[in-house]
Predict the structure.
Amino acid sequence: MRLLVLSDIHANLEALEACLEAAPAYDRVVNLGDVVGYNASPNEVCERVRAMGCPVVRGNHDRACSGLLGLSEFNLVAAMSARWTQTALENHHLNWLRSLPQGPVRHDDLPGVEFVHGSPRDEDEYVLDTSTATFDLHMPGHRDVIFFGHTHLQGGFADQDGKTRPFTPGYQNSDGVVQAEMTLTPGERYLINPGSVGQPRDNDWRAAFALYETDGEKPAKVTFYRAPYDVQQAQSRILAADLPERLATRLAQGR
Ligand code: ZN
Protein backbone atom coordinates (compact mmCIF):
# COMPACT_ATOMS: atom_id res chain seq x y z
CA MET A 1 0.00 0.00 0.00
CA ARG A 2 1.35 3.37 -1.02
CA LEU A 3 -0.55 6.14 0.71
CA LEU A 4 -0.23 9.78 -0.30
CA VAL A 5 -0.66 11.99 2.79
CA LEU A 6 -1.77 15.60 2.25
CA SER A 7 -2.48 18.19 4.91
CA ASP A 8 -3.23 21.91 5.33
CA ILE A 9 -3.78 22.69 1.66
CA HIS A 10 -5.49 25.93 2.73
CA ALA A 11 -7.06 26.80 -0.62
CA ASN A 12 -3.69 27.04 -2.36
CA LEU A 13 -4.43 25.60 -5.81
CA GLU A 14 -0.94 26.16 -7.26
CA ALA A 15 0.69 24.32 -4.34
CA LEU A 16 -1.79 21.42 -4.52
CA GLU A 17 -1.23 20.97 -8.24
CA ALA A 18 2.55 21.00 -7.78
CA CYS A 19 2.29 18.29 -5.10
CA LEU A 20 0.09 16.06 -7.23
CA GLU A 21 2.49 16.47 -10.12
CA ALA A 22 5.52 15.71 -7.94
CA ALA A 23 3.90 12.75 -6.17
CA PRO A 24 5.13 9.25 -7.08
CA ALA A 25 2.65 6.47 -7.93
CA TYR A 26 0.23 5.83 -5.04
CA ASP A 27 -2.77 3.59 -4.27
CA ARG A 28 -4.70 5.80 -1.86
CA VAL A 29 -4.82 9.34 -0.55
CA VAL A 30 -5.66 10.64 2.88
CA ASN A 31 -6.17 14.30 3.75
CA LEU A 32 -5.54 15.62 7.27
CA GLY A 33 -7.72 18.69 6.96
CA ASP A 34 -7.62 22.47 6.62
CA VAL A 35 -8.63 22.18 2.99
CA VAL A 36 -9.56 25.88 2.99
CA GLY A 37 -8.65 29.15 4.75
CA TYR A 38 -5.83 31.69 4.20
CA ASN A 39 -5.42 31.35 0.42
CA ALA A 40 -7.70 32.39 -2.39
CA SER A 41 -8.81 29.27 -4.30
CA PRO A 42 -11.27 27.56 -1.94
CA ASN A 43 -13.74 26.37 -4.59
CA GLU A 44 -11.08 25.02 -6.94
CA VAL A 45 -9.31 23.22 -4.09
CA CYS A 46 -12.54 21.72 -2.66
CA GLU A 47 -13.38 20.56 -6.18
CA ARG A 48 -10.08 18.72 -6.58
CA VAL A 49 -10.00 17.27 -3.07
CA ARG A 50 -13.57 15.97 -3.38
CA ALA A 51 -12.74 14.43 -6.76
CA MET A 52 -9.98 12.39 -5.10
CA GLY A 53 -12.70 10.59 -3.13
CA CYS A 54 -10.35 10.13 -0.18
CA PRO A 55 -10.95 10.29 3.57
CA VAL A 56 -10.62 13.89 4.82
CA VAL A 57 -10.30 14.72 8.52
CA ARG A 58 -11.84 18.08 9.38
CA GLY A 59 -9.50 20.91 10.37
CA ASN A 60 -10.23 24.00 12.47
CA HIS A 61 -10.30 26.20 9.35
CA ASP A 62 -12.74 23.82 7.65
CA ARG A 63 -15.01 24.29 10.67
CA ALA A 64 -14.50 28.04 10.91
CA CYS A 65 -15.02 28.67 7.19
CA SER A 66 -18.21 26.61 7.14
CA GLY A 67 -19.70 28.19 10.27
CA LEU A 68 -19.21 25.24 12.65
CA LEU A 69 -16.67 27.13 14.75
CA GLY A 70 -16.76 30.74 15.95
CA LEU A 71 -13.89 33.05 15.05
CA SER A 72 -13.04 34.22 18.59
CA GLU A 73 -9.96 31.95 18.78
CA PHE A 74 -8.66 33.19 15.44
CA ASN A 75 -6.25 36.09 15.04
CA LEU A 76 -7.41 39.03 12.94
CA VAL A 77 -5.89 37.86 9.65
CA ALA A 78 -7.17 34.29 10.06
CA ALA A 79 -10.65 35.60 10.93
CA MET A 80 -10.67 37.90 7.89
CA SER A 81 -9.71 35.03 5.61
CA ALA A 82 -12.33 32.74 7.20
CA ARG A 83 -15.05 35.35 6.60
CA TRP A 84 -13.92 35.87 3.01
CA THR A 85 -13.82 32.09 2.42
CA GLN A 86 -17.31 31.61 3.82
CA THR A 87 -18.67 34.16 1.33
CA ALA A 88 -16.60 32.86 -1.59
CA LEU A 89 -17.43 29.17 -1.16
CA GLU A 90 -20.21 27.59 -3.19
CA ASN A 91 -22.98 26.11 -1.06
CA HIS A 92 -22.31 22.48 -1.91
CA HIS A 93 -18.68 22.89 -0.81
CA LEU A 94 -19.81 24.51 2.46
CA ASN A 95 -22.09 21.53 3.10
CA TRP A 96 -19.30 19.11 2.28
CA LEU A 97 -16.93 20.88 4.70
CA ARG A 98 -19.57 20.69 7.44
CA SER A 99 -19.92 16.95 6.88
CA LEU A 100 -16.22 16.10 7.37
CA PRO A 101 -15.48 13.73 10.26
CA GLN A 102 -13.54 14.68 13.36
CA GLY A 103 -10.36 12.65 13.79
CA PRO A 104 -9.01 10.15 14.58
CA VAL A 105 -9.96 8.59 11.26
CA ARG A 106 -8.91 5.01 10.61
CA HIS A 107 -8.69 2.84 7.57
CA ASP A 108 -9.41 -0.93 7.43
CA ASP A 109 -6.47 -1.52 5.11
CA LEU A 110 -4.03 0.25 7.43
CA PRO A 111 -4.44 -1.49 10.81
CA GLY A 112 -1.63 0.21 12.76
CA VAL A 113 -2.28 3.75 11.59
CA GLU A 114 -4.65 6.63 12.34
CA PHE A 115 -5.16 10.14 11.04
CA VAL A 116 -5.89 13.35 12.95
CA HIS A 117 -5.79 17.07 12.30
CA GLY A 118 -4.32 18.31 15.60
CA SER A 119 -3.65 15.36 17.90
CA PRO A 120 -5.35 12.11 18.97
CA ARG A 121 -6.73 13.72 22.14
CA ASP A 122 -7.78 17.09 20.71
CA GLU A 123 -8.43 18.01 17.09
CA ASP A 124 -7.24 21.57 17.83
CA GLU A 125 -4.06 20.74 19.75
CA TYR A 126 -0.70 21.83 18.33
CA VAL A 127 1.87 19.07 18.79
CA LEU A 128 5.01 21.21 18.84
CA ASP A 129 7.18 19.77 21.62
CA THR A 130 8.34 16.39 22.86
CA SER A 131 6.37 16.43 26.14
CA THR A 132 3.08 16.94 24.29
CA ALA A 133 4.11 14.26 21.79
CA THR A 134 5.02 11.77 24.55
CA PHE A 135 1.63 12.25 26.19
CA ASP A 136 -0.23 11.85 22.88
CA LEU A 137 1.79 8.81 21.82
CA HIS A 138 0.95 6.97 25.04
CA MET A 139 -2.76 7.63 25.17
CA PRO A 140 -4.52 4.29 25.56
CA GLY A 141 -6.58 3.03 22.64
CA HIS A 142 -4.59 4.72 19.90
CA ARG A 143 -2.49 3.33 17.08
CA ASP A 144 1.31 3.20 16.85
CA VAL A 145 1.56 5.44 13.80
CA ILE A 146 -0.41 8.68 13.89
CA PHE A 147 -0.38 11.13 11.02
CA PHE A 148 -1.17 14.69 12.07
CA GLY A 149 -1.21 18.20 10.64
CA HIS A 150 -2.20 21.61 12.04
CA THR A 151 1.31 22.88 12.89
CA HIS A 152 2.38 23.25 9.23
CA LEU A 153 5.78 21.84 10.23
CA GLN A 154 7.04 18.81 8.33
CA GLY A 155 8.54 16.01 10.44
CA GLY A 156 7.33 14.76 13.80
CA PHE A 157 8.20 12.64 16.81
CA ALA A 158 9.36 9.07 17.38
CA ASP A 159 9.05 7.31 20.70
CA GLN A 160 10.79 4.25 22.08
CA ASP A 161 9.63 3.16 25.54
CA GLY A 162 8.65 6.67 26.61
CA LYS A 163 11.78 8.34 25.20
CA THR A 164 10.53 10.75 22.56
CA ARG A 165 12.71 12.44 19.97
CA PRO A 166 11.75 14.97 17.30
CA PHE A 167 12.74 14.45 13.66
CA THR A 168 12.74 16.57 10.52
CA PRO A 169 13.55 15.41 7.00
CA GLY A 170 17.13 16.08 5.92
CA TYR A 171 17.09 17.12 2.29
CA GLN A 172 19.96 17.28 -0.17
CA ASN A 173 20.11 20.63 -1.92
CA SER A 174 18.38 20.62 -5.25
CA ASP A 175 16.45 23.02 -7.44
CA GLY A 176 13.58 20.68 -8.22
CA VAL A 177 11.45 18.37 -6.11
CA VAL A 178 13.34 16.96 -3.11
CA GLN A 179 12.60 13.89 -1.04
CA ALA A 180 13.89 12.31 2.18
CA GLU A 181 13.17 8.76 3.30
CA MET A 182 12.66 7.45 6.81
CA THR A 183 12.21 3.79 7.74
CA LEU A 184 9.98 3.20 10.76
CA THR A 185 11.38 0.93 13.46
CA PRO A 186 8.91 -1.80 14.47
CA GLY A 187 7.86 -1.35 18.10
CA GLU A 188 8.41 2.42 18.09
CA ARG A 189 5.52 4.87 18.11
CA TYR A 190 5.29 7.77 15.70
CA LEU A 191 3.56 11.09 15.22
CA ILE A 192 4.22 12.06 11.60
CA ASN A 193 3.38 15.40 9.98
CA PRO A 194 3.56 15.44 6.16
CA GLY A 195 3.91 19.25 6.32
CA SER A 196 1.56 21.80 4.83
CA VAL A 197 0.75 21.81 1.14
CA GLY A 198 -0.51 25.38 1.01
CA GLN A 199 1.13 27.40 3.80
CA PRO A 200 4.38 25.85 5.10
CA ARG A 201 5.76 27.46 8.26
CA ASP A 202 9.14 25.76 8.57
CA ASN A 203 11.05 28.49 6.71
CA ASP A 204 10.83 26.51 3.49
CA TRP A 205 8.33 27.96 1.02
CA ARG A 206 8.02 24.77 -1.03
CA ALA A 207 4.80 22.75 -0.82
CA ALA A 208 5.09 19.75 1.51
CA PHE A 209 3.58 16.26 1.52
CA ALA A 210 4.50 12.67 2.33
CA LEU A 211 4.14 9.11 1.09
CA TYR A 212 3.61 6.24 3.53
CA GLU A 213 4.53 2.76 2.29
CA THR A 214 3.75 -0.55 3.92
CA ASP A 215 3.65 -4.05 2.50
CA GLY A 216 3.03 -5.96 5.70
CA GLU A 217 6.44 -7.69 5.78
CA LYS A 218 9.13 -5.04 5.48
CA PRO A 219 9.17 -2.18 8.02
CA ALA A 220 6.98 0.69 6.90
CA LYS A 221 8.61 3.71 5.30
CA VAL A 222 7.75 7.40 5.05
CA THR A 223 9.13 9.62 2.32
CA PHE A 224 8.87 13.37 2.83
CA TYR A 225 8.70 15.65 -0.19
CA ARG A 226 9.05 19.36 -1.00
CA ALA A 227 7.81 20.64 -4.34
CA PRO A 228 8.45 24.14 -5.72
CA TYR A 229 5.31 25.81 -7.02
CA ASP A 230 4.13 29.05 -8.60
CA VAL A 231 4.08 31.22 -5.44
CA GLN A 232 3.63 34.44 -7.44
CA GLN A 233 0.41 33.15 -8.92
CA ALA A 234 -0.94 32.13 -5.49
CA GLN A 235 0.06 35.58 -4.17
CA SER A 236 -1.66 37.46 -6.98
CA ARG A 237 -4.86 35.56 -6.31
CA ILE A 238 -4.70 36.59 -2.63
CA LEU A 239 -4.16 40.26 -3.53
CA ALA A 240 -6.84 40.19 -6.24
CA ALA A 241 -9.30 38.83 -3.65
CA ASP A 242 -8.45 41.75 -1.31
CA LEU A 243 -7.27 39.35 1.37
CA PRO A 244 -4.64 40.70 3.82
CA GLU A 245 -1.26 41.23 2.12
CA ARG A 246 0.48 39.34 4.92
CA LEU A 247 -1.12 36.13 3.63
CA ALA A 248 0.72 36.66 0.35
CA THR A 249 4.11 37.68 1.76
CA ARG A 250 4.27 34.79 4.22
CA LEU A 251 3.98 32.23 1.41
CA ALA A 252 7.33 33.30 -0.04
CA GLN A 253 8.93 33.18 3.42
CA GLY A 254 7.53 29.79 4.37
CA ARG A 255 6.30 31.12 7.73
ZN1 ZN B 1 -3.81 24.62 9.03
The helical segments are 13-22, 42-52, 60-65, 76-88, 91-98, 130-137, 231-240, 245-253. The pocket of zinc ion is lined by residues 8, 10, 34, 59, 61, 150, 152 (CB under 6 Å).
